[in-house]
Amino acid sequence: MELHQLRYVAAVAEAGGFTRAAEVLYLAQPSLSVQIRKLEKELGVALFERLGRKVVLTTAGEVFLEHVRPALFHLERAREEAVAVRNLQRGRLAIGTLPSAGASVLPRVLAGYRAAHPDIELRLIEHNVSADFERMVQVGELDLALTRAPWSRPGITGRVLIREPMVAMLPPGHRLDGLAELDLADLAEADFVAMSTGSGLRELLEASCRRHGFTPRVTVETEQLSVLAGMVRNGVGVSVVPRLVAADYPVAVRLADPRDARELAVVWRAGGQLAPAARALLDLLLTATRELSDETTVDGEP
């Protein structure tokens, strides 16, 4: 049983004859008759009978068509829905993001995305651990995730979006306030305000400090970037974060060592084609981060 045969049965029943149905279907009448006979042979029952010059459904044909019509209706709806998804008139998109990227990179991107594609449902998931995002992308819980590079999980692919320098967030009036850049070792004796243990930003802080020969003395931990900024602003301690995280903070001094940097990436599941909604967002992310790269570089001028 083939889909076109079902459509032919419905057309003949509606037209009341093979000739008119063939005209409606833009099909040669003999071809139409052959397909109906093939279907009747497969079913083992006649679907139509002739009453004078008309063709009418048999009892079996009436019962058969009762199921065919809703099936054809739902198939047409399925086709329309698929086309709507292709044309970005409908769809769902699940995005994972590190909180720092969610606050700095995503707002302008999602504003443009929503303006262009208002009918796409967006679900945003924030998390501090990049490895969790890789797992969620791999199993299909997320379409895309903004995370740290490099990614390592099998079955994941992606693109590096931006490489940004690390900066020292200092209280206003700090002894190093006003420098164009500083050596991280100059903060070896300072008290630090840091994100919670296990978070990506905490790992970056500790890795940078180890590179410069010390372990940061963390006196305050928090899970909120706004709390971290408030603590530093009021002199509780200093912190070290990627530049985009400190974009709105008044005293952020670039670290002199170019190795002290973060690479942000977008990842998705490998081996398949991105859904249209995800592809459109990826294109916007690449454009937006190219613009950010002009403002935020490691080797060039800021």
SSE map:
Blueprint: H1 3-15, H2 18-25, H3 29-43, E1 48-51, E2 54-57, H4 59-86, E3 91-97, H5 99-104, H6 106-116, E4 120-126, H7 130-138, E5 144-148, E6 156-169, E7 181-182, E8 191-195, H8 200-211, E9 217-222, H9 225-233, E10 239-242, E11 252-255, E12 261-269, H10 276-295
Parallel strand pairs: 3-4, 3-5, 7-11, 8-9
Antiparallel strand pairs: 1-2, 5-12, 6-10, 6-11, 6-12
Can you give keywords for this protein?
302 residues, alpha/beta, Arc Repressor Mutant, subunit A, D-Maltodextrin-Binding Protein, domain 2, 3 domains, eight-stranded mixed β-sheet, two-stranded antiparallel ribbon, 12 strands, 24% strand, disordered C terminus, transcription regulation, LysR family transcriptional regulator, hydrogen peroxide-inducible genes activator
Descriptive report:
The chain has 302 residues and is an alpha/beta fold. The protein folds into three domains: 3-86, Orthogonal Bundle (Arc Repressor Mutant, subunit A), CATH 1.10.10.10; 95-161 and 263-295, 3-Layer(aba) Sandwich (D-Maltodextrin-Binding Protein, domain 2), CATH 3.40.190; 165-261, 3-Layer(aba) Sandwich (D-Maltodextrin-Binding Protein, domain 2). It has helices at residues 3-15, 18-25, 29-43, 59-86, 99-104, 106-116, 130-138, 200-211, 225-233, 276-295; strands at 48-51, 54-57, 91-97, 120-126, 144-148, 156-169, 181-182, 191-195, 217-222, 239-242, 252-255, 261-269. Strands 3, 4, 5, 6, 7, 10, 11 and 12 form an eight-stranded mixed β-sheet that branches. Helix 1 (3-15) packs across helix 4 (59-86). The chain is rod-shaped, with a radius of gyration of 31 Å.
